[in-house]
């Protein structure tokens, strides 16, 4: 056991972020890796037990972290996004949640052996999925927009509802036991107050941002301070209503469409990711060996199996009757329902209060909850990608390229990528500049890529690379800087700066924007001039007989290397600072000078043009 709290905090952070990296590196469900890391550090190796070591600070830390995570998730709940999905989402979070509560409670009573009071309390809690587990799975699975949005909205909205259902069931128990209606009235009043408080806090923060009462450098700290205050005030009045309050605050801000909130979103996502990583490790590390052993109780195993294979699918199928969801979408949504942090934290709270009220069967709640959480996280984490592919709801395929800026060069580049079976989308705010792409059958999007509306109409899931290739250097840098959080710095590219005489732009590209493409001096003007003068995009496959060394030796001195499609299917754009290399099976694409035959044709056409001009003059 590590005695130093500072060392424990360091270990929790290291394990959390390290688990995320391992999950990314080996394409594993992050939640599964974090759970295993926490179990190894806690009950298996005995290095720490955060619940014991942190003492009274443990539960407030977890609660505040959950509040921030839920707020960050609710900031994405813009009503515009749910356009066309309103009915299925509404049915799932109302009728579907109610069915899941009833069916889950029946399973808890008849299979897990819990009393009716404990069964209905924990049954309400088990309807939650939550952003802490759903959002990492959605990032991993690359689902199509419709099922992804349904799962995201359900996870964020049902999270506080599940906690409140558990509180409601508990208050009903107290009412029936003590015959005190005031407790029940207090619950409804506290819930209504929590929603009102969240709305007021959201409106207040939005108004202060819009009127400039908060300076830019204080906006993020101010939002977090208000979130914590909103959660704490509501939670002090009645336990778990704080989750409802921060959800209402986040949704209010999301639908005010304030640019400052959008600017802070990436920062808040990073904070949320760090909190998810560390909190999940803390929760699993705090479990005891006895809790883990109790999981293998036949009643608990039967309950978990029923929740996975009967309760969830049945509640989704019944609640979505009459909606426009396809059978495949119903199957996917009916299977994916991982439980996470909220279920674990709230279950531990109710285990203690129900035991205090004399319900001895509540002693197995922590084991029951962890069994459900870990099983659903593993089962859904490893199956979501496979099932989505089988049902045709996955965007899996070769990593695509999003190109900003229509021109002769980008049209040729897009056509070459398309010929190599690489998904490509060419965007521009000018209908005229996209005319070449439309005439060649290239997929294009007419609109401003930096507009807020773009995220509602343009699905960027298939694209892993961004190429900003307009004639404006500042715009290219702005596009890359804006989308770095989505594509990553390594996958965001822009054309070389047009370093005109007198400009001192040498260091600019190293601090903002994306990575510079191709060789030095490959500016928009230079590339388009070459294409207009007959340069062609040439594809060459590297083989054992014709190696990359042979290719470089025979390459025309005026040719320009553009990118390589690796044998794995990935695209690697060439940049001035990289070492050029290729292996067997790679396809090298370059911009080559026109052939001799092409030059003769051009000379003939040029002669005809001059002859016509002379005839007009005469």
UniProtKB/TrEMBL annotation:
The cross-references to InterPro entries, in alphabetical order and at most eight, read: Cation/H_exchanger_TM, Na+/solute_symporter_sf, NAD(P)-bd_dom_sf, RCK_N
Keyword Membrane assigned to the entry: answer is: yes
Membrane topology value:
Multi-pass membrane protein
Compartment annotation: Cell membrane
Q: Which residues form the Cation/H+ exchanger transmembrane domain?
A: 22-390
Q: Quote one Gene Ontology molecular function term.
A: antiporter activity
Top-level taxon in the UniProt lineage: Bacteria
* Any one GO CC term of the record: plasma membrane
Entry keyword set: Antiport, Cell membrane, Ion transport, Membrane, Transmembrane, Transmembrane helix, Transport
Q: Does the keyword Transmembrane apply?
A: yes
Q: Which residues cross the membrane?
A: 6-24, 31-48, 60-77, 89-108, 114-135, 156-177, 183-205, 270-289, 295-319, 331-352, 364-388
BP terms from Gene Ontology: potassium ion transport; proton transmembrane transport
Residues in domain RCK N-terminal?
401-482
Task: Give the matching PANTHER family.
Answer: NA(+)/H(+) ANTIPORTER 1, NA(+)_H(+) ANTIPORTER 2-RELATED
What is the name attached to this protein's record?
Answer: Sodium:proton antiporter
Source organism of this protein record: Halobacillus trueperi
Instruction: Give the organism's phylogenetic lineage.
Output: Bacteria, Bacillati, Bacillota, Bacilli, Bacillales
